[in-house]
Design a protein that fits this description.
The termini are far apart. Helices cover about 20% and strands about 40% of the residues. The protein has one domain. Strand 4 and strand 5 form a beta hairpin. By secondary structure, the protein is an alpha+beta fold. Strands 3, 4, 5, 6, 7, 8, 10 and 11 form an eight-stranded antiparallel beta sheet that branches. Strands 2-1-12-9 form a four-stranded antiparallel beta sheet.
């Protein structure tokens, strides 16, 4: 051990190695945001994995099964990873839909009525996926579209989030989850 300490080159290598270990440990410990998971309610592998920053939005788009009118629901995650609904847009008020008094404000966005500034917590939620070509439950995220109706029609799916470390986020940037849509709008892998 005495010869290790007498050589300045070895001390430098040990110091750099120790700094690298501490750096990787810090990345593994420091918060790195969240992943939104869409998983079958009965369990199983995720259908969709979306890396999200707090406040970043994802949209659930579908056609009302009775009115056959398009609906957009914009959601976000707060700083603690809880899901909130931020905005709803629709052409006409459909059966089972409506405004909650005291939540958001109603405006017009072109031909659509929108309830904005909602920031209403939903937490994890379950969605029963409708038929393709009819309901077309589609998740829109960073200009990508994932049609859940073509994957798990008539099945219940859970929208949930989980915190990830900075190291996990960095590795996901290098090696995205196979169920994370790429910029060309399709899942990786």
């Amino acid at each position: 051990m005495g010869s290790l300490c007498k050589r300045p080159g070895r001390r430098w290598v040990i110091a750099v190695g120790l700094a690298a270990v501490i750096g990787v440990a810090a990345l593994a410990w420091l918060p790195g945001g969240f992943e939104l998971l869409v998983v079958p309610a009965r369990g199983g592998e995720p259908l969709l994995v979306l890396p999200l920053e707090p406040g970043e939005r994802f949209t659930l788009h579908y056609y009302h099964s009775v009115e056959n009118a398009p609906i957009w629901e914009e959601h976000s995650l707060d700083a603690d990873g809880r899901i909130h609904i931020e905005e709803e847009r629709y052409l006409k008020l459909g059966a089972g839909m409506g405004r909650t008094p005291g939540v958001g404000r109603v405006i017009q966005k072109g031909p659509y009525t929108a309830i904005v500034d909602m920031h209403r917590p939903t937490g994890d939620f379950i969605l029963r996926v409708g038929r393709p070509g009819v309901v077309d439950h589609t998740v829109i995220w960073r200009d990508t579209r994932t049609n859940l109706s073509t994957q798990v029609v008539h099945q219940a799916v859970r929208f949930t989030s989980r915190p990830v470390s900075r190291l996990h986020r960095l590795l996901r940037r290098l090696y995205p989850h196979p169920r994370t849509p790429s910029s060309n709008g399709v899942a990786n892998g």
